[in-house]
Specification:
Number of domains: 1
Protein name: DUF3617 family protein
Number of strands: 8
InterPro entries: DUF3617
Strand order of the largest sheet: 2-3-1-8-7-6-5-4
Helix content: 25-40%
Order of helices and strands: HEHHEEHHEEEEE
Strand content: 25-35%
Largest sheet: 8 strands, antiparallel
Distance between the termini: 36 Å
Length: about 200
């Protein structure tokens, strides 16, 4: 359960970073359970503007997300992702939008196509789709302030908490930072995403 929860949390961060997830990417059980306590890019990669500010926060196209993890669980999470990528079949990777993900220089790097539908999703719908697969989690508390969105939720009667902040520098660049605390162990994940061209 701890590994699955960590993986799902990472998926929220990654998806938020890329501002959209496909239906298949929303299922944290896509990779093998032994996979890991960490990001499916953005995984992590992976990866959602609020309706009030949806004046095109994210431009559809080909995006690259770079995920960095730090803190007591950070290296463990990165190692878990690397092992998961090695053990997944090409079909599993494709279903989880991880077919071109790689770990290099201590960072998880992934490219994916963001469709207009994905770019139009808001953080609330993303959170709802992820948290429904995480029993015992509170509804996400989401706030929007200009070009920033924040989200907080807890799971297991406060045994795990996550705070996330997304900053949209422009429709072609954004950064999502999350801080997770689980059983006294912490991890900070930063996903920097940028549009790199057309799909």
């Amino acid at each position: 359960m701890e590994k699955l929860t960590g993986f799902a949390v990472a998926a929220v961060v990654a998806c938020a970073g890329l501002m959209g997830c496909s239906k298949k990417e929303e299922t944290p059980s896509s990779p093998p359970a032994a996979a890991a306590p960490a990001p499916a890019p953005a995984a992590a990669p992976a990866p959602a503007p609020a309706p009030a500010v949806a004046a095109q926060k994210v431009q559809p196209g080909k995006w690259q997300a770079t995920t960095e993890m730090s803190g007591p669980m950070g290296q463990q999470a990165l190692t878990g992702v690397e092992q998961a990528l090695k053990s997944m079949t090409p079909e599993q990777k494709k279903a989880a939008n991880l077919d071109n993900a790689k770990v290099e220089g201590g960072k998880l790097v992934q490219e994916m196509c963001i469709t207009p539908d994905m770019a139009g999703k808001n953080l609330q719908s993303l959170a709802d789709s992820q948290l429904k697969n995480m029993p015992g989690c509170s509804p996400a508390d989401i706030k929007t302030d200009g070009n920033k969105e924040s989200m907080r939720f807890t799971c297991g009667e406060g045994k795990m908490s996550m705070d996330l902040e997304a900053v949209y520098t422009s429709p072609t660049e954004n950064t999502v930072t999350s801080k997770m605390d689980m059983a006294g162990q912490g991890m900070t994940t930063t996903v920097t995403s940028k549009r790199v061209g057309d799909c």
